[in-house]
Amino acid sequence: MPDMWLVADTAVMVAAIRSDTEASRHLRVAGLARRFTMLASVPLLIEYQAVMTRQEHLAASRLSVGDLEDLLDAVAAVSEPVRLDFLWRPVLSDADDDMVLETAMNGRADAIVTFNRRHFSSVTKQFGVGVLSPAETVKQLEKTS
């Protein structure tokens, strides 16, 4: 059973398809292999799809829309579904960040994985959820392997 319950923000998911070498890619592979519990809500999955299928991300990743939809289907299949029973809005300056926070809080995440630590740091202390960069998360996973 995986030890860590994590929510990835959309930028981390985008980075995971755009580069073969970044920590975000390693996290995607580890998540699909169920080395940690990926948490996802329906609104967050819709956000992933909307952003990841933008032409600039498809071009950089060399993926087709169909390839990306298959990937997102796999992410949805291995993720722990999070029902948003309670909404915290507005808490953060970006509504998309609120969606990530809501998924983390309703899913009882250990941490939010993000490049925007400063956007989340004040409220995550308030709500008791960690904030990790993709590289920090990979290091944490290596410790538990």
Enumerate how many helices there are, as a single number: 8
Spatial extent as radius of gyration: 14 Å
Spatial ordering of strands, largest sheet: 3-2-1-4-5
Order of helices and strands: EHHEHHHEHEHEH
Helix content: 55-70%
Mean pLDDT: 91
Main beta-sheet annotation: 5 strands, parallel
Poorly predicted ranges (pLDDT <50, ≥5 residues)?
none
Strand tally: 5
Structural class: alpha/beta
CA-based shape = globular
CA distance, first residue to last residue: 12 Å
Strand portion, in percent? 5-15%
Instruction: Give the oligomeric state.
Output: single chain
Structure description:
With 145 residues, the chain is an alpha/beta fold. The protein contains 8 helices and 5 strands, in the order βααβαααβαβαβα. It has a 5-stranded parallel beta sheet with strand order 3-2-1-4-5, with helices on both faces. Helix 1 (10-18) crosses helix 2 and helix 3 packs antiparallel against helix 5. The radius of gyration is 14 Å and the shape is globular. It starts with a strand and ends with a helix. 35% of the residues are buried. The mean pLDDT is 91.
How would you summarize the topology of this molecule?
Blueprint: E1 5-8, H1 10-18, H2 23-32, E2 37-40, H3 42-52, H4 55-61, H5 65-78, E3 80-81, H6 95-106, E4 111-113, H7 117-127, E5 130-132, H8 134-144
Parallel strand pairs: 1-2, 1-4, 2-3, 4-5
Features:
alpha/beta, 8 helices, five-stranded parallel beta sheet, 145 residues
